[in-house]
Amino acid sequence: MAVCGICREAESKYKCPSCKVPYCSLACYKPHKAEHEANPLPPPPPEPPAATTIIPEIRPEDKSPFSPLLTTPLTPTLRKHLLSIHAATKKPIHNPNSSYRGRGGGRGRGGGRGGHETREREWTEEQETKAAIEKLRMLREEGNEEIEEFVQMVVGLVEKDQGDTLQKR
């Protein structure tokens, strides 16, 4: 165990919530706390303003018409939402020890004699796509402005790409 950071004699049992200095008793903590009140810690620096979504111009040297998505600044919440959509595409983890056994998993009326499939089903690309679309739909229904702006930007890029493809033919 650590020694008290204030009296340096007894074994510490606690830590100061402000600076995490270990202390042994209330007798040591009270004068230490008074120091914090006399010399408060500086406030944390202000957060930078949230980035706005601006559609950058596509340069001819860019290989993909969707490269502006890579250079568009993402706010932390938009990044979180996009990661949640990506996470929805991952195969759900099946826990064999879970208490829910599904329909007919208990005893009675044919239960317990086999007949139910125990092997895991394959997670297909179609299921991934459906899960991602469902997650995106839920986010859009919540009225999330960042997601809506991102979707509009992607739709604009797709329409522009389709227009460019038709002009090349």
TrEMBL record:
Residues 87-128 are annotated as: Disordered. Residues 4-38 form the HIT-type domain. Keywords: Metal-binding, Zinc, Zinc-finger. GO terms for cellular component: nucleus; pre-snoRNP complex. It comes from the Eukaryota. Residues 114-128 have a biased composition (Basic and acidic residues). CDD domains: zf-HIT_ZNHIT2-3. Residues 102-113 have a biased composition (Gly residues). GO terms for molecular function: zinc ion binding. This is (Perigord truffle) hypothetical protein. The lineage of its organism: Eukaryota, Fungi, Dikarya, Ascomycota, Pezizomycotina.
